[in-house]
Amino acid sequence: MRNSGLRQRLASLVLRLGGWAAEGVPPDLPKYVIVAAPHTWWWDGFWMVAFAWRWGLRINWLVKSTAARYPFGALLRALGAIPVDRSSPQGLVSQLTAEFGERLELLLSISPEGTRARRDYWKSGFYQVARAANVPVCLSYLDYGRMKGGFGPCFLLTGDMHADMNRIRAFYRDVRGRVPEQFTPPRLREEDAAGSGDER
User: What pTM was estimated for this model as a whole?
Assistant: First the structure.
């Protein structure tokens, strides 16, 4: 999954020119779900890909199946895109779980905020996929307050959603997005549905 060479050197140069420094190296594991947060600016995706290239990682991300058609479909897939049908959330979880089962290596990057605008909740797809595929969740970040990006903890979810999310909340508490007021705090709608009321 690790690559080296021109792409790595180019990414390192771009990050330096952008004022970024890397910290928190990615885990040496063949499969995991990457939580990509905060996501408050349209350039966040560009910087996250640059960090992945800098570490020599081949990451995958989701695109609408309609966007992966001719003439750009082959290029998007080559760059790591996984075309999905988002019309059914449960179907999407099953599709991504199958992807993990079929591949020897898969680093799947998901932005649980789902949008750059502030919302009440994160989307729970990352949690459901990691649980169903039995792969770790790895917390990644772009901290614009310190201009550093990298990886934090990587762990298997316990199934105790509130406890798992408390761990995620603690990690992102001091990470600042490019537009802080647009950051959606890490909380899942399912937590409130289950009656968990502490640690917002």
Answer: 0.88
* All structural domains of the chain with their residue ranges: 6-193
Average pLDDT across each block of 10 residues of the chain; the chain has 200 residues. List them in order.
Answer: 76 96 94 96 90 93 68 70 68 90 95 87 96 97 97 97 97 96 95 67
Q: Assess contact for 114 and 81: CB atoms under 8 A.
A: no
Handedness of CA 177, 140, 74, 95 (dihedral sign): negative
- DSSP reduced 3-state for 143: strand
* Residue 41 amino acid letter: W
Structure tokens belonging to residue 142: 């772009």
Residue 123 structure tokens: 């989307």
Instruction: Give me the amino acid identity at 171.
Output: F
Which tokens sit at 163?
């406890």
